[in-house]
User: Fold these one by one.
Assistant:
Number 1:
Amino acid sequence: MFTHQKPLQFTARPDAPDPAFARRFQEVLGGKWGEMTVAMQYLYQGWNCRLPGKYKDMLMSIGTEELSHVEMITTMIDQLLDKAPPMAPDDTTGSTQASEFGQQNPQQTIVNGGGAYPHDSNGVPWSGAFVTASGNLMADFHLNVTAEMQGRLQVARLFHMTDDQGVKDLIRFLVTRDHMHQMQWLSAIEELKADGLDGVPTPEAFPLEEEFDEFSHTFIQASDGEAATEGSWASGPAPDGRGDFRSALIEAHGQIPELAPGDPRLYGTQELQETKGLIDKAKDALS
Amino acid sequence: MFTHQKPLQFTARPDAPDPAFARRFQEVLGGKWGEMTVAMQYLYQGWNCRLPGKYKDMLMSIGTEELSHVEMITTMIDQLLDKAPPMAPDDTTGSTQASEFGQQNPQQTIVNGGGAYPHDSNGVPWSGAFVTASGNLMADFHLNVTAEMQGRLQVARLFHMTDDQGVKDLIRFLVTRDHMHQMQWLSAIEELKADGLDGVPTPEAFPLEEEFDEFSHTFIQASDGEAATEGSWASGPAPDGRGDFRSALIEAHGQIPELAPGDPRLYGTQELQETKGLIDKAKDALS
Amino acid sequence: MFTHQKPLQFTARPDAPDPAFARRFQEVLGGKWGEMTVAMQYLYQGWNCRLPGKYKDMLMSIGTEELSHVEMITTMIDQLLDKAPPMAPDDTTGSTQASEFGQQNPQQTIVNGGGAYPHDSNGVPWSGAFVTASGNLMADFHLNVTAEMQGRLQVARLFHMTDDQGVKDLIRFLVTRDHMHQMQWLSAIEELKADGLDGVPTPEAFPLEEEFDEFSHTFIQASDGEAATEGSWASGPAPDGRGDFRSALIEAHGQIPELAPGDPRLYGTQELQETKGLIDKAKDALS
Amino acid sequence: MFTHQKPLQFTARPDAPDPAFARRFQEVLGGKWGEMTVAMQYLYQGWNCRLPGKYKDMLMSIGTEELSHVEMITTMIDQLLDKAPPMAPDDTTGSTQASEFGQQNPQQTIVNGGGAYPHDSNGVPWSGAFVTASGNLMADFHLNVTAEMQGRLQVARLFHMTDDQGVKDLIRFLVTRDHMHQMQWLSAIEELKADGLDGVPTPEAFPLEEEFDEFSHTFIQASDGEAATEGSWASGPAPDGRGDFRSALIEAHGQIPELAPGDPRLYGTQELQETKGLIDKAKDALS
Amino acid sequence: MFTHQKPLQFTARPDAPDPAFARRFQEVLGGKWGEMTVAMQYLYQGWNCRLPGKYKDMLMSIGTEELSHVEMITTMIDQLLDKAPPMAPDDTTGSTQASEFGQQNPQQTIVNGGGAYPHDSNGVPWSGAFVTASGNLMADFHLNVTAEMQGRLQVARLFHMTDDQGVKDLIRFLVTRDHMHQMQWLSAIEELKADGLDGVPTPEAFPLEEEFDEFSHTFIQASDGEAATEGSWASGPAPDGRGDFRSALIEAHGQIPELAPGDPRLYGTQELQETKGLIDKAKDALS
Amino acid sequence: MFTHQKPLQFTARPDAPDPAFARRFQEVLGGKWGEMTVAMQYLYQGWNCRLPGKYKDMLMSIGTEELSHVEMITTMIDQLLDKAPPMAPDDTTGSTQASEFGQQNPQQTIVNGGGAYPHDSNGVPWSGAFVTASGNLMADFHLNVTAEMQGRLQVARLFHMTDDQGVKDLIRFLVTRDHMHQMQWLSAIEELKADGLDGVPTPEAFPLEEEFDEFSHTFIQASDGEAATEGSWASGPAPDGRGDFRSALIEAHGQIPELAPGDPRLYGTQELQETKGLIDKAKDALS
């Protein structure tokens, strides 16, 4: 169960409106790697977690914190949209204003009346498909690491796209929390291993005897870029402790696919003889 | 530049058709974590990679290999769709057939004429949004680890959803390659660090002095699940080597948000006095 | 800022698993009119609200409550998915089990490992486009009324699709809250009027003198269904208190559209003479 | 059955081309609340209406009229796109032209050759998910009210985003029809009540004795914004005539959710002991 | 401008309800190649057509006719949904009913109350992206041919998926109109050529001297399937009358791509030396 | 099985960066008619083709070639994004730079770090729904013709939107290949006919005796544009060789649709008497 209090987790107050940045900041709100995604992803992982205890509790805490980030960014965008110009500026204005008018997202004014929404920086709606909660924490925590890395990367880039100190302060807070959260997931991964809950390859419980050993440690070269085999993934010990990497040119081990003729009632293109025979039969069957 | 040869990378031949499994197998073809995603993701990461050499070459190799996986699964689904029943079976048939008819994806016959397509197991189209190629290999390689984990998890689950030995053989091949590829990305992450190209927090080049130290190592409790603080992410040394984790209850450090009245020409709801004054002004401006 | 506590707002515990209902219940979680939508819609309306006070505070309260509903339904679906059969049942089982296998959503097991996700009952992802926060409370509160009506309608229908008393109890709670919330929005609409903040037509501040009186109270018959003019919308006093409804057959008041030839560099199909002349000019321009 | 005649319902002729406004006008054509939505929504509501007579006939009339609005806006956008500049203007041009170039939607020229399409002002395609036709007219007519309010709000905003008298004239027509249509749906709602077809709460036929009285009239405070309880939704008579509103702090009435361990063949993370035991059993079962 | 009359263009009355077919029939209503698509596609092509006369008039006629098809299929689906079972049948019922329950689309009852909607047979919403109106009639009429072919193919397949004579009669009508419409577009393509409005390659007005002759008639073998060169596309006269087809193995004519280092403020992975230097500069620039 | 080599099929090197064109060029990469679509469409058609030999082999060759086009355009966009300005230019810069800043796609920098992605020119993700592989080559090859026409049209338009000779050279290559590929599909269509595999109407194997002759050759006028009947599709011999075209005004041949009352448990709006009776029964049934 959730409760809300009115003060924000951190200050969200720009020095001045900026309609172009209001568009861009949507990316870390409603983009694939934005705060909507991490909030919902951690909460669904928490709700679906079948293991009671520290992992489940931690997921609920961080998911709830991310909701507060959604709130701060939304509030910031709302203020950046104050005084967004309704029309193209006249020719007496300068290039900066012209640039910013061009970069504007028209939905922020026409649809939202000067407000943020759960869409990305191009106005594409946030999608529930951005959320993964697989039930396997090892797989999901690796996703969470990259989510915090992609997120920190994006806010770090945005840091250089504005001179507004108020905006930069909120970005600095977000960069810091993404730093913390990267470490949190990396620690949790180590703890999952230490607790014996899973390992590499994930899921570790799948019986390895079902694998084809020939392919389990081989880097397959399907491109002619030769430097690829200089990497540690092409020779030397593999992280599962079960042998060494090797490399090989890609080879075909399978059949040349030939498909059986389809049901003539599907009217696919197939061998003339067969088709005719089958269609006749089908016609008979129809009558 | 790409070339193609007709034999498959591995055998893809079911013992018998199975329309219900033909629907389910779409998940690892055109789902968020399916082969379409990893093929395209690795290729775009390779194409966009601004660092020539082993990483870029490796990305092109594995991306190209994944295209061959797309081909195998497509070929398998095509064969599983042979003899898909056009109509509900009559009452003389058994429960297995009734179950399978119910689970069928009608587009595989009506739209594709008994064929696979780049959609997931519920028929939702594959989306270009599933691909991330951020230009930062550290962030992206962590995504690639989880992609292989989610992928291996899904095929491991599918392994228990069929008794068909032909299908199981292809799944065993896929499970094995996902094992290899998990290790490949884990090794590549270590190599990025060893090469000094990036680290934790990612991106490492963003100046840490811009962060707020108060928040960089603190696990924030926003939920009352107390076990969360038992984890290694709440106390003890943090993976960045820059201090210890601590934990604290979530606190509000920001303002209670109050937004300025909007432009009256946007007709948002606002304070009566202001609204009236502004609307009068706007009306004057209009006339 | 948000906080979370572990007990649920209301009990969510089914008597028994039911994979078919687990699919169906997704509709009121991640469908267009599900709890994800109302939670996010009310929160965004609250955050974007430029009028401090009772409306903004109320929006934050109800939006936060709806998050707790998301949590309860997710928890219920997770339990309905216990023991979902991985394979089609054999022929010794009965029709009920065959029916339920057919109705299953394969992603709930293959992707989520037996868990809920922000998608609808057909597995289509929830979309940020479902959220409207226009900045105009009168317009949005009418949307909120229908959201609660559509929501109550759907849970009322679901009530008849299960015999599970545990599930029915949660549905009864949801039906009740949707009852309350319908009344809440209806009251808030009256209060907006009483406070003079807006009225009919919405937005009331748009100058009526800009309208064409000829069309402001006329029901236009564009179909030959004559009963349409028997309604109160075709004669008698109109709700804006500015006159009576009337009705008229649809008439064309505009031009027959004729478009100017396009830029020949866009290669659209146009008049032969013009095209040739323009293309020659374009070719000249190119050289 | 439909027929078409060439003259438009109202004049759609701009004074001059304007590529930036051509992008923005797409919102009320192919956006969530645009004419495509209302046309299709009213028609599907009409087609699906199981009650013959005035409501069904009225739905068919207004749905058909909205198709004529789709046509007018499309025609207007086509003309606004005449002479859209293919390339960025040179440095001798002024800020207005630079602003407009920036605001352009590139698909209107590259894809459509200078034409409109069923997409919103950011180029996101119109979605069939925007249409709701629930079979319950009371719920749907409330949606229709807000559709006309959101629509009128958007064209009212667009009115201030152009100086073109031809465009403004069409907008004035649209504003007027949205005024009429708001009143039409409000009247129809009253008529549904008068005819005894439904009421509040909707659907009224759902047996109220299934509700939990404790929650049917209580405004639940989940946020600390105290002004929320000043509203008429927190005390005083409720619109259903069945009692008074009251308010209460949110409370947890449900269990702390604990999920059963999942099927080990789904490889979710769960209790160590259980997992091992179950995996051993699963392995036995596999062999 | 459009008008509507109540009788349908053709009878749409099933012999009996059939919830499984009600799901499947959605494909030709709201699927990519369904009636929604052709109705909207032809209308947008007509509206955007800059050439007055027979082509534009014809587009408006057929687009309007297709609206009447949308209406018939919607009406049919509504009737197929009468008596859709709310719950899984008990074990005393037979396999047919179990099959049909499994195949049901739950949204048709839960969301639509027993009605059709603009979604495909898997419940994925119809998309405005399905519509193409490029402004070039030659390109678009070829799309229209395939739209009628894909449409006829789908209804021909559906013909074999039901025994209901009422449904089959409507399908027979649709098959017939798709037959007519295929011929209509093929004739119109010939007429465009005869009128000199465009030709092959389309657009014919693009100056051929800008092409690279080496590649304009060469079938490039990028796969080792040798039979490909037996086709008429690999030797013999080409349809543009400008030479003979030839074939050649694919060859690389371009550079090995090497990208310049990116802006260090984007934190992409790049050469160590460069990165460090650039980051130092960036840090200097920041301070 | 696929392999890759590092040199590009054709040179992809711009003379200079151009962030506005980098956005626009996305259309032919990840738009509906871009290279992602044709690559995937031809490959899926090839994989699903049940007829071994020249058609299947040809599909694999051209599909593979299109992958190389995806690679070239991606590489070009990457280079066009070098030096994309992070912030709006200051007022000392000129209109060209201001225009280009406005036209920029913010995701190309914020998300991709200066790279291309499988999205269109407005940033909407590529969709698997763009791919059609129906199993019927006649239907699909007509789609392939229009795909090459739409593609050539778009690159021809883009040719006039840049002055960069490097970009123009790649466009010239693409225009040329689209020329070739149009002819390839047109030849293949003729060859399908010559091989007797299908014809007009497609699918030819569907028994014509099931059609209604009255409607198979009639152009139906549903709009009052009289010029429509001047076309060859309204009189004279039809392409199927089975008679002459004729034309007729649209007529209603079907019933006025009246739907049966729905299941009262779906709470749809219906006749008062019926509703009440049915609801009473339902209530009885509930108790």
Number 2:
Amino acid sequence: MAGGSGTRFWPLSRRRTPKQVLAILGPNSLLQDTVQRIMGLAPSERTFVVTNLRQKRLIAQQLPDLSDSNYILEPSPRNTAPCIGLAAFAIRRIDPQAVMIVLPSDHLVRDESAFIQAIRTAVEVARQTDGLVTFGIPPTRIETGYGYIQFEPTDGDLPKSVHRVKAFAEKPNRETAERFVASGEFYWNSGIFIWRVERILKEMEEHLPEQYHQLDMISRAWGQPGYARTLVNRWGRIRPISIDYGVMEVASSPIYMVEGDFGWSDVGSWDELYRLHKGNANHNVTLGETALIDAKDNFIYSPGKITAMVGLDNVMVINTPTATLICPLDRAQDVKQVVEKLKREGKEHYL
Amino acid sequence: MAGGSGTRFWPLSRRRTPKQVLAILGPNSLLQDTVQRIMGLAPSERTFVVTNLRQKRLIAQQLPDLSDSNYILEPSPRNTAPCIGLAAFAIRRIDPQAVMIVLPSDHLVRDESAFIQAIRTAVEVARQTDGLVTFGIPPTRIETGYGYIQFEPTDGDLPKSVHRVKAFAEKPNRETAERFVASGEFYWNSGIFIWRVERILKEMEEHLPEQYHQLDMISRAWGQPGYARTLVNRWGRIRPISIDYGVMEVASSPIYMVEGDFGWSDVGSWDELYRLHKGNANHNVTLGETALIDAKDNFIYSPGKITAMVGLDNVMVINTPTATLICPLDRAQDVKQVVEKLKREGKEHYL
């Protein structure tokens, strides 16, 4: 899934350069890392990128091993359920027995071999149980920016790292998050899913019948002369809904959670990126030259020019050729307010 | 006097673009305003700009009414006494009876007619008494960034706005500044001087004999074939010293202070520039587009790009194509620490 246009990394992320195509943690973009990471399990002919026309060209430049047949294009954003449904229909055409791994393209995974091992386990569980499988990330801090998964032991002979999902919880407030983490029964919801395509399509048919119908119509037009028109017309009628809300929270199939202890982060905001760069040290993280006086624990991203800072701590400065953002790190979540303000004021060219 | 390379407006002011050539308060640079302001009293053939070779070209572009004969070039910075001495020798060659008005080129004057009136008074006092005349600015706040002049009533029939100078005080600490302002006997030292060229040269001969000797040697070579070499050699041997310390504080002539109630400011730092722009309103001062969330009383200078700020007050952001400065307004004085740091680290190209 590479169609998102995340606003929380403004001004670095823009409509045409969303978070997943940015190389914010290394030489490669998060998207490139995502595709690279899964390559051993899913070679390029079985890798599909769902995105939109606006982003496709840049994405295709970043993924030279993929060709047009690897792309599934959404005419407009409809949240994750229609996105996953469209991909599921596409995959079923190739292999009705296929197991599908749904990966956001803008996450960080630090331990690749643990990740691959967990994916293998999840694929096995999906095949064996015909259930819906997701990853739960053992929380490493009180975090209000993620959804949580409550789990309980499985019965049966599944691996030790596999649990039965009891409930999904949306992003909690601070107090609730503290309770979740303290209980040991709640893991972070990674947004990664594994299931047989038949299974997820059955669930969508049952719980999202309108969306399913439109997707089915699109699927039937595949390869026909009128496909583009059908796609645009049918897709346009689809009501946006997330896979969590539309399927996972109401699913009829059993849901399993595989422990995902592989150094995962959704790199959801500038302050999280700062923490990832900083590690455990107590200092400034800088990209670009700096001259700092009485300034600590700051995050300065300003390639190609010098940034001087005097007497400020815990502040981030993101300086791109056309825009600058200055904000305390603990208000990084409010960057989306800036984007909303720009939208409201009609300053679309900055988005 | 237009040779300064002020560091307190870094990164906008650089070695080649010092404060006086910047248009920081309106369409014209402070230098252009200074020359324009005095034009009615001193037409261009009697206006002399003391600067250095590095800045001359840019200054000449800003002052199209002046020609090469209006420039007096210093080979290197030697503080104000040698600068004024060199100019005094040059003016004496043209008119030994001349009264000389010494003006820094980087000050702000808001009430031009009051300024001209005060200059007329000062010129009259200099002619009548053959003393040294300076301007004292009635203080409008406790200010530790300026020197002060202590004054007492004059005897004789001088205008009411003219006082006798009792003492010069260097930049005081906070407590002393409070006492100065409360006393009513201390005005700000504007660094503007008026005197007969003969008078200041006599004072220099007496109190700065070594400097005077070198300047005299330079003056004698004027118009001779070896002038440039003499200038560089002799000037190089001059020990830098300010006119305040070298002459005013030890002068043998009587010293008068004319009240300068003409909206003066030396625009000495970013926070003063912020105050001047802001007036009495309580808001952000911005140049360039902005998107501000929970941000007040900030000073944002970032032409040509958008600046977003979240959750910060009383902070300045100065964003030029090659450098950015972020600093609380009340630490604007510490910008010179940044410049010193850059110098120390050999990053001369940023200066």
